[in-house]
């Protein structure tokens, strides 16, 4: 009886033991999985800790080298672009300079072409092709000559004022002596708008770039800023042309003339285009009678 009861109890308790075994098995499996996960995590963490500085170093080195070569490539590209822009700027400035020069030349030529309307004389427009540096640019060569009617002693002018006179001529070129040359001479009138009526002899001073007006009475009123006009009495220049502006005066007295310095209105140091006036001064009449002790030729030719 005891044996039978024991087997019955075993059969009754078997499901309970099975459940307990299954639960124990789940616990063991869970613990084992956790330990494996922890060990794997520890291994991964250790590997990452070791590899992290190496990865950082490799990453920095790669970035630095790549950036260096990238910057070199960008620098080369930037240099080429700068060179291209510089060349483009230089070309633009050259074109602008040429345009300004062309506009200035057009204005000069236009003013020379209008001279006939202003002064009433035919003119030949010419260009300066050479200068004589040995005499401080006091002599120039122009590209027009006798083939177009230019003759000796004809006046040369710009729109601003007189330049000089023709002293040598060939069929295709002419030599012009500037008024600043010591051997050049022209009559002039001092005063604003030519109202003073004072006469004097205008002569060049050579290297100074100025001209001097002499023999003006110390009693005449002369001031800096007054301008000088040609009188037409020198048989070279027609009357009424601009000579220049007074820049310095040492006032004279009743017995001493003024010492007057004049700056030519024509920009003689920048001459490019000019005009030769086809002007022939009226012939001086021959004197029929003179005093016995007077040199007839000197009386007719002295300026």
Task: Walk me through this protein's architecture.
The protein has 303 residues and is of the alpha+beta class. The chain folds into two domains: 1-113; 124-277, Thrombin, subunit H (Beta Barrel). Helix content is 41%, strand content 23%. It has helices spanning 2-113, 115-119, 296-301, and strands at 123-131, 139-142, 155-157, 162-169, 174-178, 185-190, 198-204, 211-214, 227-229, 242-250, 259-264, 273-277. The strands form two sheets. The chain has a six-stranded antiparallel beta barrel with strand order 1-2-5-4-3-12. It is rod-shaped, with a radius of gyration of 53 Å. The model is unreliable at 299-303 (pLDDT under 50).
- What is the helix/strand order? HHEEEEEEEEEEEEH
The coarse silhouette is rod-shaped
Strand order of the largest sheet: 1-2-5-4-3-12
Helical/strand content category: alpha+beta
CATH class of the largest domain: Mainly Beta
Q: Which consecutive residue ranges, at least 5 long each, have pLDDT under 50?
A: 299-303
């Amino acid at each position: 009886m005891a044996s039978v009861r024991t087997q019955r109890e075993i059969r009754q308790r078997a499901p309970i033991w099975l459940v307990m075994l299954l639960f124990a098995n789940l616990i063991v499996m869970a613990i084992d999985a956790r330990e494996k996960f922890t060990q794997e995590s520890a291994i991964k963490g250790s590997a990452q800790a070791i590899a992290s500085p190496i990865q950082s170093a490799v990453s920095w080195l790669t970035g630095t080298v790549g950036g260096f070569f990238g910057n070199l490539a960008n620098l080369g590209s930037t240099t080429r672009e700068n060179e291209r822009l510089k060349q483009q700027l230089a070309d633009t400035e050259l074109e602008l300079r040429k345009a300004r020069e062309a506009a200035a030349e057009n204005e000069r030529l236009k003013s020379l072409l209008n001279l006939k309307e202003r002064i009433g004389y035919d003119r030949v427009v010419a260009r300066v092709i050479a200068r004589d540096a040995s005499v401080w640019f006091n002599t120039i060569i122009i590209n027009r000559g006798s083939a177009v009617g230019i003759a000796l002693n004809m006046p040369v002018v710009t729109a601003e004022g007189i330049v000089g006179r023709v002293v040598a001529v060939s069929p295709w070129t002419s030599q012009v002596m500037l008024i600043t040359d010591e051997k050049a001479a022209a009559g002039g009138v001092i005063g604003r708008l030519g109202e003073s009526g004072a006469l004097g002899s205008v002569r060049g001073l050579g290297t100074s770039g100025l001209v001097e007006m002499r023999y003006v009475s110390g009693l005449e009123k002369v001031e800096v800023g007054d301008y000088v006009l040609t009188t037409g009495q020198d048989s070279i220049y027609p009357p009424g042309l601009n000579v220049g502006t007074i820049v310095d005066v040492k006032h004279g007295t009743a017995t001493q003339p003024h010492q007057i310095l004049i700056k030519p209105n024509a920009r003689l140091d920048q001459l490019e285009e000019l005009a030769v006036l086809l002007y022939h001064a009226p012939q001086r009449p021959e004197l029929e009678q003179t005093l016995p002790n007077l040199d007839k030729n000197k009386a007719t030719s002295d300026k």
